[in-house]
Amino acid sequence: MFFDRPESGELAVLVHLELSSIDSPDDPREFEELALSAGADPVSFIFGQRATPDPKTFVGRGKLEEIGRAVQEQGAELVIFDHILSPSQERNIERALKCRVLDRTGLILDIFAQRARTHEGKLQVELAQLRHMATRLVRGWTHLERQKGGIGLRGPGETQLETDRRLLRVRIDAIEKRLEKVRRQREQGRRARSRAEVATVSLVGYTNAGKSTLFNRLTDAGVYVRNQLFATLDPTMRRVELPNVGAMVLADTVGFVSHLPHKLVEAFRATLEEAANATLLLHVVDAAAEDRLHLMQEVQTVLEEIDASDLPQLVVYNKIDLLTDFAPRMDCDDQGVPQAVWLSAATGAGCTLLVEAIARRLGAQMVRGRLVVRPHQSRLRAQLYQINAIQGEVYRDNGDCELQLLLPRRDFQRLLAPFSSNGERPVWLPLVDTGEDSGQREHE
Predict the structure, then answer these.
(1) Quick check: pTM over 0.70?
(2) Where is the Hflx-type G domain (predicted)?
């Protein structure tokens, strides 16, 4: 029901109103791209201006007649509004136009239904669709007032609408329980990565900013890439080795869009939690977009909804190949900490700078150096092996073991804390090829 899509596009009339009550209106070009991504074939684009929406039909009487003429002249099968319509507005417009009407939320839900590939993704889309449909059930049952009465025909006392709503609630509850199981499984995976001290870096950004192209460039994962909105719906995760830092997990997530329906944010919470629990966010931005500052703010709005706005961010300005005479570069703050990288994921220019920037951001939390462990301190050596902190070891003639370490600073402090009181603290040495390590200066 939810995932069998027609192969050919539907003739559609698009409607976009500029409302003076909205401070930052949506871009009509993005609305058209959304319609094309859903498989619609726009035959007419109707614009208008209005102070506030009409409570009955959203548009005024004259504009509704104009839309009706366009439907008749073009033989359109569908009218799509670039706005969120109430159920009553949707019904009234359909009654006047004698054709199917879809609002922005329904359009995005349709795109998500087409893009879902995994079982989890399909469950999340179906949950969002059912929640959206629950408010619009009356559309399909206006011809059924009450089940038939009479001898031998009396029903359970429910209207058909009530029966349908009850069945919807049962299905929604079943999906929510299955997604809760998925959420627990993801949480177990995050706890396992946390115990192993493996950093998680999540790609976030506006839809079609080039996240999946960048993900493929860094991981060779072969994730589906296409120049369309919401090409990626199901999250993908890959392990990446960083120089002088170690392993990290890179996660590709669903793109954001202006006025992302709350039903989708709620349904995709299990997926979006990968971003909310990341060590570092890579905020991918289309550098060639004219309104990139507005798009960045829309991403921040969604991050606030999933409680991820306070996480460390590294801004990645992508698609510099579409700019004139623009070379890759890394922008750092006064302390030399990378804040932004300008690159092209399509050509690969600047991707080495991004890897370096990620390593420097994550490496600031790492300690590198050599630790001399005496024979009676073998328990410390075992603990270091347990957290995969030892990169190499050499035994000396006197029985001491010289360990080459790379580990998070907090683990380094925790493991060496018991030796501070007894005066038998292991000897910390700088790496031979890099000079004195910052960890030595801090912990000596």
Answers:
(1) no
(2) 199-366
